[in-house]
């Protein structure tokens, strides 16, 4: 072969190897995992877990003339494990957020996590378990909305999305000894 042919052959071989090295099948694992590395474990866990727990038919009671309101709906666990909710937060930023239950006909803050059993649902309703927002500086009117996040046992936080507000008649709730939280004589 002539010197020119050898140079051309070497040039074509180098170009072929360079192109082969750029093909998707030959990328190394560190390049392929780079996009995943930019996504934090918490983000992956939260998005996966958010699909595991949904809040259906959720509604916030409008509170145009009071400093408290409540959130109702049905929490649905789509997993094969119990989900324990220890608290919640909203974009409304109330000073006090509590999970309430009914004990002996009286509403009170739950002393243990709210558990949504594996593959089941748990209703939050007036006169029953519900999320309570108290000592609110801002009112929320019908047609407005708030964002809701729940805190799980173990510290994980799940974003359950936007909840719409509507006018609802007051329930027949009894808050007993909850004086000091603006609960005296208030229905929600």
Record keyword descriptors for this entry:
single chain; 188 residues; alpha+beta; 10 strands; globular; disordered C terminus
Question: What does this protein look like?
Answer:
This protein is an alpha+beta fold. It has a domain at 53-164: PCu(A)C copper chaperone (Immunoglobulin-like). Helices cover 22% and strands 36% of the residues. It has 4 helices and 10 strands; from the N terminus they run ααααββββββββββ. The protein has helices at 3-22, 29-32, 34-38, 41-52; strands at 53-61, 69-77, 83-90, 96-103, 106-109, 114-116, 121-124, 130-134, 145-152, 157-166. Strands 1, 2, 3, 4, 5, 6, 7, 8, 9 and 10 form a 10-stranded mixed β-sheet that branches. Strand 1 and strand 2 form a beta hairpin. Residues 5-48 and 172-188 have low confidence and may be disordered.
- Binned, the helix content reads 10-25%
Order of SSEs: HHHHEEEEEEEEEE
Q: What is the straight-line distance between the termini?
A: 94 Å
CATH fold-level topology of the domain at 53-164: Immunoglobulin-like
Strand segment tally: 10
Cα gyration radius (Å): 27 Å
Signal peptide: 1-20
Protein name: Copper chaperone PCu(A)C
Region (Disordered): 24-49, 167-188
Pfam family, one: PCuAC
């Amino acid at each position: 072969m002539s010197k020119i042919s050898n140079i051309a052959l070497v040039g074509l071989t180098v170009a072929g190897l360079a192109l082969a090295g750029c093909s998707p099948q030959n990328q190394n694992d560190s390049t392929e995992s780079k996009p995943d590395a930019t996504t934090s474990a918490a983000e992956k866990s939260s998005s996966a877990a958010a699909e595991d727990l949904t809040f259906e038919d959720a509604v916030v009671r409008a509170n145009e003339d009071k400093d408290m309101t409540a959130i109702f709906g049905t929490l649905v666990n789509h997993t094969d494990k119990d989900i324990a909710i220890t608290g919640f937060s909203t974009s409304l930023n109330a000073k006090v957020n509590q999970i309430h239950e009914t004990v002996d006909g009286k509403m009170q803050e739950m002393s243990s996590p709210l558990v949504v059993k594996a593959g089941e649902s748990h209703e939050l309703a007036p006169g029953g378990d519900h999320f309570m927002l108290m000592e609110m500086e801002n009112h929320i009117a019908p047609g407005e909305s708030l964002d809701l996040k729940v805190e799980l046992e173990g510290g994980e936080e799940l974003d359950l999305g936007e909840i719409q507000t509507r006018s609802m008649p007051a329930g027949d709730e009894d808050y007993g000894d909850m004086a000091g939280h603006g609960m005296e004589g208030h229905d929600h």
